[in-house]
Every structure is written in C-alpha cells, then in structure tokens.
Amino acid sequence: MNRDNLPEAVRIIIDNRLWSEETIGMTDSHVYLMEDMVLKIEPLCEESVNEHRMMAWLQGKLPVPQILASIAQDGMNYLLTSRLNGHMACAPIQLQEREQLIRLLVKGMHQMWHIDITDCPVRNDVSNKLRQAKERIDQNRLDNDDWDAPWLSEIGAQDPETLYKWLSDHRPEQEEWVFSHGDYCLPNVFFEGENVTGFVDLGRSGIADKWQDIALCLRSLQYNLNCSDTQTLEREFFAELGLEPDYERLRYYLLLDELF
C-alpha cells in the first residue's frame, strides 16, 4: 500500500499506523489490516458500490464494521472501517471446535434472516444474479480454470454460456427472500467465544433466497474442515438449521456461484 496514492481523507485517518495485507480470500480487492482499522481497496464496480451501500444500511441492524471513510476516486473504491473483534470462522482456533463452529454459523444466518428487509436498498435475487452473470460472461471476466462444482459435467456445461443457459432454464420455482450475505463463507464471518461478532465482504448482499447462504456456507465448511465424511457433516449442519436439505436449490446456487 502506497500511502501517497490514497485519498487525503483516508491518509488523515490512518495517520502512521502500521499495516499488514490480508491474503485470505478470492477477490480482486486488497485488504490492509491495522490494529484498530481495516482498509479495503478494489476497482469501482457494481459489487464494490453495493458493499458501501449495504454496510451503511446495516449499521445498527447487524454487527458489521463501523464506516470511517467511503470514497470513490480514480476508478477505485476505498472503504475504511473499524476492525472487528474475534477471529474469522476459518481460523484454526474456530476449526478445532466443529460443533461450536456449526452452531455459530447457523446463528449468524439466523441473525441475517431476521432483519426487516422492507427498505433494503439492494435486491440480489436470481434475476439480478443472472443479469450480473451474463455481464461477466460478455465482458470475459471469468476464470474457467477455477470451476470446481462437481455437477458441471453432469449438466453438460462445457463453457460459461452453456452453464448460463442451464441456470436460466432451471431457476428455482420459489425463492425464500431474506437478507442474504451473498457470499456466506467462513472467512466472511467473525466469532469470539459464543458470539457472532461481525460480517464482512458484503458486496453480494441484499434481498435473496436464503438457500444462497446455506449452499455456500455448507461448501465452505466442507472445504475448511477438509472433511472426508461429508454426509455426517451435512447431517450435523442441517440438524442445527432445523431444515431438510433441498438438494436442487443447493446444486443450483453452487452452480450459479461458478459464474462469480
């Protein structure tokens, strides 16, 4: 991070604080950690603009960082926030306690889903996600080498266009709309003891089907726990949720995520 290239308002706030770069995650953003602050820098785009809007809307509704500065300049978005207490859900200290980890992840989902979405400024349902996916395909913004859904070959999705067509033709018959994180993976939620202390990376959040969160959370659990017995983990997860698995919607949202 070159401090001289930062917006003046950000430079004034961070002063001479020491920082380190966070390397966990799979986005185009750069995240710099300070003792009491976090600076996220990413290209100006729909997703980064959405994160600034949603984090502002969520103040007082959900444990999210306090916004210290939100600035768009020279094609980049700068989001300076307070730093959350606790640890990422993927931290070793959290992964050691599997039962507690599942319980807190489900607790976090329920906190999100109980938010009143009447005046939520962003709708990120299937229609909007498909629109965004089509734009990403048209702009050649996809890395096909990163595709990992086990069902791609089963549905004959040899390229993004055929996957997009399949997704358009097989939309869920219904969506259970809630406030959805949109990328509810372990690095994006923080815990301390028995408490959910916060949520980050909210660029894909908004009104959406709750099964979006469920699908990505379960996949992230399986990956971070390096779990060989996925069936047992799945049973534990859905028992805590108090739901029966909807395998069609789980598959759909994992496939949709391949276009993001």
Walk me through this protein's architecture:
The protein has about 260 residues and is an alpha+beta fold. The chain folds into two domains: about 5-80, Phosphorylase Kinase, domain 1, CATH 3.30.200.20; about 85-255, Aminoglycoside phosphotransferase (APH), C-terminal lobe (Aminoglycoside 3'-phosphotransferase, Chain: A, domain 2). The protein has nine helices and ten strands. It has helices spanning about 10-15, 45-60, 90-95, 100-115, 125-140, 160-170, 210-225, 230-240, 245-255, and strands spanning about 20, 30-35, 35-45, 65-75, 75-80, 85-90, 175-180, 190, 195-200, 205-210. Strands 1-2-3-5-4 form a five-stranded antiparallel beta sheet, sandwiched between helices. A hairpin with a 2-residue loop joins strand 4 and strand 5 (about 75-80). The mean pLDDT is about 90.
Short description:
It contains nine helices and ten strands. With 260 residues, it is an alpha+beta fold. A hairpin with a 7-residue loop joins strand 1 (20-22) and strand 2.
Identify the CATH architecture of the largest domain.
Alpha-Beta Complex
Percent helix, as a range, is: 25-40%
Order of helices and strands: HEEEHEEEHHHHEEEEHHH
Question: What is the terminal separation in angstroms?
Answer: 26 Å
- CATH topology annotation of the largest domain: Aminoglycoside 3'-phosphotransferase, Chain: A, domain 2
Main beta sheet strand tally, sense and closure? 5 strands, antiparallel
**Strand order in space, largest sheet:** 1-2-3-5-4
Q: In terms of quaternary structure, what is this?
A: single chain
- Rough outline: globular
Q: Which spans have pLDDT < 50 for at least 5 consecutive residues?
A: none
- The overall strand count is 10
